[in-house]
Specification:
The chain has about 200 residues and is mainly beta.
């Protein structure tokens, strides 16, 4: 029985390996000075388009400090007067986040901030993940396995979550990003994102 179970687990692992997608998109922001709000001019990848959402979107800041010496160039929500969200999308392609798709970012939250993934599907539906990335005293890399995530509807006008969505179709995703679902509280209560990577399969628009 144990041998059979091990064989089944091995087959599942091999199946996952076979459908593991490569890097679809990475955004790391230009190495330029601070600015509020962040704009398309601050995007480093020429294939990436920036989206800003919510009533607090004009407070989303492109930030950087001369000290410490390794301080990255990042997106900061500390000056958002109310809820806000940031997304990236590929100019030419949608992305399928099915199978073993994953999303990684390097971030640092302070206070009670929990950073959630948000998605815009090709049909216009917006989703926000129940799972999140919480506070940290220093920068850290977090990886989300998309099949593990639980989703809720997102009102993108207010950037407020709604009811759960069971097994949404993620085969045609237009935009991917993040929100902490809260107003900014300056440095003691804010979210910071250094870079984001999306691993999925390109799909024609």
């Amino acid at each position: 029985m144990g041998t059979l179970r091990g064989f089944i687990l091995l087959l599942g692992s091999l199946s996952l390996e076979a459908q593991r997608p490569g890097l679809f998109l990475r955004e790391d922001w230009k190495e330029s000075g601070p600015a509020t709000p962040i704009t398309q001019e601050h995007v480093a990848n020429p294939d990436v388009l920036l989206g800003l959402y919510g009533p607090g979107k004009d407070g989303i800041r492109k930030s950087h400090h001369d000290k410490p010496a390794d301080d990255p160039y990042y997106v900061w929500t500390g000056e958002c007067p109310s809820n806000c969200g940031v997304t990236v999308r590929h100019r030419a392609s949608l992305v399928s986040l099915t199978g073993a798709a994953k999303i990684r970012w390097r971030s640092k939250q302070s206070g009670l901030r929990q950073l959630h993934l948000i998605l815009k599907l090709a049909n216009g539906t917006w989703l926000v993940s129940e799972q999140s990335d919480g506070p940290s005293l220093d920068w850290r890399v977090n990886e989300f396995n998309v099949p593990d995530l639980v989703w809720r509807r997102l009102d993108i006008r207010s950037v407020v979550e709604g009811a759960r969505v069971e097994r949404p179709d993620l085969s045609r995703v237009d935009e991917i990003g993040w929100t902490d679902l809260m107003a900014g509280g300056n440095s003691p209560a804010s979210s910071r994102v250094d870079w984001i990577e999306i691993y999925g399969t390109p799909v024609a628009r």
